[in-house]
Design brief:
single chain; alpha+beta; four-stranded antiparallel sheet; 4 helices; GNAT family N-acetyltransferase
Length: 157
């Protein structure tokens, strides 16, 4: 499948709400939460006023001019927060585009972009049951903390 990875435009920032919902890990056999769950303050910090900070960066993946995935970072006090100099990363793809290398390529592009902007590392939080945790390990993320359900992972750039 052919796809392009590019910077997200300001006009496309509202799509982050949709991709925030897609980023919620839903184990097999579990009913998805209602879409309005993304209105909760602990999730809105990922997208609210995105672009207002110089540390806000977003990339999208496009297939046939349709945006099918997004990866974005910002420095926030979220589940994966390490410190006030380390951006937290969020990524999601529509289900039908997962498992084809698009997410890995988006992650690599974002890591390169962050390094270019002088960042030393990036963090994320991932549920232990999420298959994406293995992809994060393969591209250089290491577990630095954990709780019962999640790993906090960091990639040094």
């Amino acid at each position: 499948m052919e796809y392009t990875i590019r910077e997200m435009t300001v006009m496309e920032y509202p799509l982050l709400n949709e991709f925030l919902y897609e980023a919620i890990f839903i184990p097999d056999g579990i009913k998805p939460p209602p879409k309005n769950i993304i209105a909760s303050p602990e999730l809105q910090i990922y997208v609210d006023r995105f672009g207002a900070s110089k540390a806000d960066f977003a990339l999208v993946a496009e297939v046939e001019q349709k945006i099918v995935g997004a990866v974005w970072v910002r420095i926030i006090h979220d589940y994966g927060h390490i410190d006030d100099e380390t951006p937290s990363l969020a990524i999601s793809l529509y289900k039908e585009y997962r498992g084809q290398g698009i997410g890995t390529d988006m992650m690599k592009e974002m890591l390169s972009l962050l390094k270019t902007h002088g960042y030393k590392r990036v963090s994320l939080s991932v549920q232990k049951a999420n298959y994406a945790a293995e992809m994060y390990r393969k591209i250089g993320f290491d577990i630095v903390r954990e709780n019962e359900e999640e790993w906090i992972m960091v990639c040094n750039l």
